[in-house]
Amino acid sequence: MLELLSRLFSPVYCDAPEPWQIGFQDAGSPIAEGIQNLHNEIFFYLIVIFVGVGWVLGSVVVNYSQDKSPIVYKYANHGTLIELVWTITPAFILIAIAFPSFKLLYLMDEVISPSMTIKVVGHQWYWSYEYSDFVNDDGESIEFDSYMLPESDLEDGQLRLLDVDNRVVVPVDTHIRFVVTGADVLHDFACPSLGLKIDCCPGRLNQTSVFIKREGVFYGQCSELCGVYHGFMPIAIEAVSMEKYLSWLDSQG
Amino acid sequence: MSILRSLPRTLPRVATPAIRSYASAASPSISVTSTRSNASAPALANIEASWKSLPAEEQFEVYQQLEELQKRDWKELSVDEKKAAYFVAFGPHGPRAPTMPEGNTQKVFLYTAAAVAAAFGLFTFARSRAKGPAPTVTREYQEQMTEYMRSQNQNPISGVSSEGYKGKGMVTL
Ligand SMILES: [Cu+2]
């Protein structure tokens, strides 16, 4: 039934990350795990609030209907106790949400002694990457551009609008620092399963760190509207073992 | 508010519907009848039904009578008086009269259905002129995509590459 509806009404055919996915992608880094935990934690309060507000609204609708209470008690317009209750309770709920939220925010903000640095530059409409810690045979740092694969070049199940010609290859279990900027307009370097999202501002360097816990390919998309092909400059981060990473570096020489 | 100007200064400037519906009456002569609670009861009983047929002067009289009544302890008001006071202040008359006579739900429903149908037609037209689905939207390619994602170890905790995965992966067709 849902599939029938989707085929009737869906103006775009969803084919990635997974069809009809409504939850998070599986976490690949401690930060993504933290974000998903915070989401679940806040959801607990959301349910409490939903039940409380729903109960109040529902009981008003049921008990003060036209039939049960034809004369509205129109002069009941002030009650100090109830006002105190409904002011102070939300304040406590907000505090309970704010503490874990700030804790995570400042943990994510910290870039602690990274083992390697990758520079990311957003262009209209592709990404370019520079591995300044490594040099090739000519003594220049490794750099390359990363374009989306056009529809006509897709083969063997490559993901449309997500796969790129040159992936960012990184080692697992390594503290990696991304230094990001924009070459022309604002872009945003993002990867949901790594909990990564950072603006690329022209004339400014932003930094963030990521620690990938498992091998795999992690897809993201530019997340700041940057022009007509904003939707066609995906990010593909490939996490590999250290040995594979070193041989990839060699092949870049 | 021409109606307020036509009223004597002594009236409190509360623009209740009773006064507004009084607007058409030319220079009213107001005589505040001091009524007792029990004496007013028959006149006020079932005011909802009789209100519209009352001439404007009498509506105003009832309104004033109720105002006087409400200056005293409300707990001593009879149910009829309470109901009348509520109806005059908040009932569906004057500016609060329903904009549409009853029994027009069918018309509303038909017009709404027509609008929805028109919107759906427009949508269908736009869809019929749009480009077809991408070449990747075939069952064969979707199966390939699932295999490709498995080979890349994607979503290994709960998704396609997870142990004992039962879903259909990328296959939607
Ligand atoms: Cu963009």
TrEMBL record, chain A:
Its main location: mitochondrion. One of its GO terms (molecular function) is cytochrome-c oxidase activity. The lineage of its organism: Eukaryota, Fungi, Dikarya, Basidiomycota, Agaricomycotina. Keywords: Copper, Electron transport, Membrane, Metal-binding, Mitochondrion, Mitochondrion inner membrane, Respiratory chain, Translocase, Transmembrane, Transmembrane helix, Transport. This is Cytochrome c oxidase subunit 2. GO terms for cellular component: mitochondrial inner membrane; respiratory chain complex IV. The chain crosses the membrane at residues 42-64, 84-106. Binds a copper A center.
TrEMBL record, chain B:
Keywords: Membrane, Mitochondrion, Mitochondrion inner membrane, Oxidoreductase, Transit peptide, Transmembrane, Transmembrane helix. Pathway: Energy metabolism; oxidative phosphorylation. GO terms for cellular component: mitochondrial inner membrane; respiratory chain complex IV. It is a single-pass membrane protein. The keyword Membrane applies. This is Cytochrome c oxidase subunit V. Belongs to the cytochrome c oxidase IV family. Its main location: mitochondrion. The keyword Mitochondrion applies. Residues 149-173 are annotated as: Disordered. GO terms for biological process: mitochondrial electron transport, cytochrome c to oxygen. It is found in: Mitochondrion inner membrane.
